[in-house]
């Protein structure tokens, strides 16, 4: 709707006095709501920084590299938790990304049309399971299974690797990583599936016409076309994984040190906050946990910004790239 | 060009058998991947169902929790608490989220709408435990005690970007011709919005609201920080800390006692049933609303 047409006095003739205040009122109210959303994110950054300030003053930037968490001596560092976050989220992504691409290939290229929607809905539903329930399942079902079956098998097959050494344990980095895989997969899948669906049919048909098998078509048309989308989706999944507090706190065991073995208990930034914030008697303990929260917030913001930029730029670039890809085929 | 290169399909004819084998392998693994995802869902839901159903009883639903370690009680106080906390959160987040969406789709020029969308994405990406720290500093510290209201504020912050983003998408689907027809009749913007745009989009807006409620009904992390130490019995005053189903599941799951675990499964069954039903209802509304808008 053009503003010019609306400013025509005949068209604007007010039906009653309400119309004269209705528009500015709605504009003002909705603008206020938008300002509130912006204020909330600023408030989060400020408040977390404020709560962390005593610890920031006391430990400085060295907090990040300190491998210690001792409420008795009041010496705190983030290294064990940054390590735990990176390891568990990293493994989760290594598993979830290929899995999600495979599921998306099935949903867009292989599944009969009658099965397609129900399966897609079920995969989406996986994302709807509350994390505390996934954590409960992790403690009582997945954990014992890891301890009795998966970890001994990994150990006997690959035990020469330090990451698969040591005694199997129900609570471990590995169990946490698997729970995060379950959480990240539906998120990554829903984005990659959508991106796969935008691949022009002509490109696919062109590839088939040249004699490509289905996989060759996917590899040479769908995957290159969707590359940016897949990377963006994976990073979005990473955002979900690094921020998960509850389910990880339930299954990772809570050890506050760095351990190379994936069978060992550990903790992540988010899980450590969830596990200790409530009690946290030490004068510097809550500020240190808030400091962890601040680092986590920075991680999350960076990850999300990168993901959005990649997805957005990918969407633009693909439209430009399309003709040359046809030529290349 | 060599046989393994990307665009040498037509020269590849000698390897047809191998190519077909690779193809079948990939097709099989993709199918297995999809089956695996569905299987995990069924296993988790199945575990909750089989382990929770036994402890589910009228007594469990209508009796408040026992003292710490006493597993003879139920979760009536947690059900009431969750309803209050989530209800107040929805009352705060849904109108504000809808207004934000109206602002970005109806009023704001692109150079303002884009940053607002970006902020919503950022807010959506903030770990919920960090939201918990924020509300702890904002409300719990000044009041010197936890409260159901603090929990509601935290959940409202988690809901806001979900409500706003889905509402934006739905409002953008409303056909421009409908609005233009209203404007052509000389109807003011706010009337057009209330009488044309919102009713047309109602199904989709409801979807977003339901999904956001489903999402926060199971949200635990911020509640642990701002609303987890509560008194005995069924409490209904949001100014004091209230019990909630997710926090009950979390605390029971951390307990070593098998009886507490059984109670956690039963509470999980209630929660998962609520969340999944809400999701299914939301999807039905969304499908209907898209059809109505011809999308």
Helix coverage percent of chain B: over 70%
Radius of gyration of chain A: 25 Å
Structural class of chain A: mainly alpha
Question: What is the 3D form of chain B?
Answer: globular
Interface with most residues: A-B, 100 and 102 residues
N-end to C-end Cα span of chain A: 43 Å
Average pLDDT metric of chain B: 87
Taking pLDDT < 50 over at least 5 consecutive residues as the criterion, the unreliable ranges of chain B are: 1-6
Describe the structure.
The complex is a heterodimer of chains A (329) and B (295). By secondary structure, chain A is an all-alpha fold. Chain A has twelve helices and two strands, in the order αααββααααααααα. Chain A has helices spanning 3-7, 9-12, 17-59, 79-110, 113-128, 131-158, 173-197, 201-209, 214-243, 246-251, 269-276, 285-328, and strands at residues 69-70, 75-76. In chain A, strands 1-2 form a two-stranded antiparallel sheet. In chain A, β1 (69-70) and β2 (75-76) form a beta hairpin. Chain A is flat. The model of chain A is unreliable at 1-5 and 316-329 (pLDDT under 50). Chain B has 295 residues and is an all-alpha fold. Mean pLDDT of chain B is 87; it is low at 1-6. In chain B, α3 (76-107) crosses α10 (245-254). The chains are: A mainly alpha (329), B mainly alpha (295). At the A-B interface, α2, α3, α4, α5 and α6 of A face α1, α3, α4, α5 and α6 of B.
List keywords for this structure.
heterodimer, A: 329 residues, mainly alpha, 2 strands, 76% helix, disordered N terminus, B: 295 residues, 11 helices, 0% strand
Question: What is shown here, in short?
Answer:
The complex is a heterodimer of chains A (329) and B (295). Chain A is mainly α and 329 residues long.
What's the arrangement of secondary structure elements?
The complex is a heterodimer of chains A (329) and B (295).
Chain A: H1 3-7, H2 9-12, H3 17-59, E1 69-70, E2 75-76, H4 79-110, H5 113-128, H6 131-158, H7 173-197, H8 201-209, H9 214-243, H10 246-251, H11 269-276, H12 285-328
Antiparallel strand pairs in A: 1-2
Helix pairs in contact in A: 3-12, 4-7, 4-9, 5-7, 6-7, 7-9, 8-9, 9-12, 11-12
Chain B: H1 16-52, H2 58-62, H3 76-107, H4 110-125, H5 128-143, H6 148-173, H7 176-184, H8 189-217, H9 221-226, H10 245-254, H11 258-292
Helix pairs in contact in B: 1-11, 3-4, 3-6, 3-8, 3-10, 4-6, 5-6, 6-8, 7-8, 8-11, 10-11
